[in-house]
Amino acid sequence: MEIKLLLINMEPSVAVVILNWNGKKLLEQFLPSVVETEYANLQLIVGDNASTDDSVAFIKKHYPQVAIIENDQNYGFAGGYNHILAKVEADYFVLLNSDVEVPKNWIKPVIEQMQQDDRIAVAQPKVKWQLQKTQFEYAGAGGGFIDAYAFPFCRGRIFDHVETDEGQYNTPVDIFWASGAAFFIKSKAWQQVNGLDEDLFAHMEEIDLCWRLKNLGYRIVSCPDAEVYHVGGGTLNANNPYKTYLNFRNNLVIMQKNLPLGDAYWRIFVRLWFDLSAWFQFLIKGKPQFTLAISKAHFHFFKQLGKTAKKRGTVQIPITALSGVYKGSIVWAYFIKKIKAFSQLRW
After folding, report:
1. Are strands 67-70 and 42-48 parallel, antiparallel or unpaired?
2. Is 258 inside any structural domain?
3. What is the torsional sign of CA 209, 229, 42, 174?
4. Does residue 316 lie in a domain region?
5. Residue 42 lies in a domain
6. Whether 37 contacts 94, CB under 8 Å
7. Pair 62, 34: CB distance under 8 Å
8. Strand partners of residue 164
9. Cα(190)–Cα(200) distance, integer angstroms
């Protein structure tokens, strides 16, 4: 008995941390599946971003086995996790959205894959749609990629086209970024790069984190042997102009931070023309609030050029030299060549 217990406890320690802000309804729906997780060396933690509903009281009453760490204010996704994880000790951190349902054995396959190589810093399971579990979900699908101009897309999702999971992406591969919906990271790697960039507040902060790690020589991988089920849009839905603002601003910011200078100048210049095209599309479709969101994103990007420049790491690698990068334009492939499935892309 003692020998068996010792072997079980030799598993790497894992802390699953759910960041919550006024999410009692989501916790009621999805926390039950999380507490059923089968993994021996596990901590379950809810980090609360100064909720004003009774989320914390609900957890204390119904799930005393779940630890609670409370922030003194809402620091957003990035800042919220930075403050919470500074108080957590484990070999692995798992950043899990509050609107994610998990099967019992969703952790072990990912940890086993990450243990195989010290250079693997981050991984994600398949992210599928909670309402239709045969379909990939927008936020992460089978793993995140970017194109030569830093447009993000996924293995199983390009722009708004989401594929059905028919086993076509069951091979583990190196990806560019892992979804923040179910984000596995070695705690040493998290600490080495000081976690998420709080100035991004929310959206694309996980891409920035992965990019910084890739510039340091780490690997980001997909783990198709595990899967989770994400509702999506739990905090900001796709029709929210503020989400549009964050996505356009943050995409430019992470390009400036992580590209070599020569690469950054001309790729950002090209991106601005793509953004201008989107600006006109929103205007033509009668969505002035979204055109304004893009304008604000550009204004604030240029306003903080100096601040962002100070965040550049000591190492930047040309984007096309990194794994998980489509060397063409995903915009051209999708809208002009009408490529809808990831498997149709020519690498």
Report:
1. parallel
2. yes
3. negative
4. yes
5. no
6. no
7. no
8. 135
9. 17
Number of domains observed in the structure of the chain: 1
Average model confidence (pLDDT) across the chain: 95
Q: Angle at Cα 46 formed by Cα 40 and Cα 52, nearest 5°?
A: 165
Please give the Cα distance from 262 to 23 (Å, whole number): 44
Length of the chain: 347
- 163 near 126, Cβ under 8 Å? no
* Threshold 0.70, pTM exceeds: yes
pLDDT per residue as tens digits for the range 110-144: 999 999 999 999 999 999 999 999 999 999 999 99
Residue (of 147, 145, 148) closest to 156 by Cα position? 145
Domain that holds residue 283: 241-320
Which residue intervals of the chain are DSSP H helices?
A: 2-9, 24-35, 55-62, 76-85, 108-114, 187-192, 205-215, 241-258, 261-284, 288-303, 305-309, 330-331
Asked if 71 contacts 48 with a C-beta cutoff of 8 angstroms, the reply is yes
Is 274 among the domain residues? yes
